[in-house]
Amino acid sequence: MARKVACSSIRVRYGETDQMGIVYYANYLVWMEVARVAYCREAGFEYRDMERNGGAFLVVTEAHCRYRAPARFDDQIELACWVAESRSRMVRFAYEMRRAGELLATGETLHTVTDAQGKMIRMPEQYRRYFPLTR
Questions:
Q1: End-to-end CA distance of the chain, in Å?
Q2: What pLDDT shows up at residue 2?
Q3: Could you identify which of 29, 30, 37, 94 might form a hypothetical disulfide with 84, taking C-beta atoms 3.0 to 4.6 angstroms apart as the criterion?
Q4: What is the mean pLDDT of each run of 10 residues along the chain (135 residues)?
Q5: Has 18 been annotated as catalytic?
Q6: Which residues contact 103 (CB under 8 A, 6 or more apart)?
């Protein structure tokens, strides 16, 4: 089965750059969140509804980013996101960030499924289809 890849894009804002005109490293993590929310929307549900109606929260427990080339003010950045791994209580997303096809960065975030109090739970049944189990 082919993996579902969600694509979205952002334009680098001036405030996302440092004194050298290069995107500050932490903004790539923000872009991963943008891509992850786009993945959920393209998959067929709103991320906020999973929290509000499903009582399930995807808490980030690990984040990794490998920087390959700098992004700069006003660059158009293409974001790609897909589920790299999922189990009943966790989801790992993978990301690529590109400018005109050039790979700028890759990343992953690992999420634990919790309730509103932060207790680990199983992914609610109605959302499991959006995160196909890999193990």
A1: 14
A2: 59
A3: 94
A4: 84 96 96 96 91 92 98 98 95 97 98 96 92 72
A5: yes
A6: 68, 69, 96, 97
Other CB atoms within a 10 A radius of the CB of residue 31 amount to 25
Under 8 Å between Cβ of 90 and 134: no
Question: Is it true that domain 6-128 has CATH number 3.30.390.30?
Answer: no
| Residue environment code for 80-102, b if the CB has 16+ CB neighbours within 10 A, otherwise e | bbbbeebeeebbbbbbbbbbeee
Return the structure tokens found at 104. 């700028």
The side-by-side arrangement of strands in the sheet containing 57-67 is 6-11, 76-87, 90-99, 102-114, 57-67
Confidence at residue 133, expressed as pLDDT on a 0 to 100 scale: 67
Q: Indicate which residue of 18, 49, 74, 115 is catalytic.
A: 18
pLDDT of residue 36: 96
The residue with tokens 């929290």 is 51
* pLDDT in the model for residue 54: 85
* pLDDT (0 to 100) of residue 120: 97
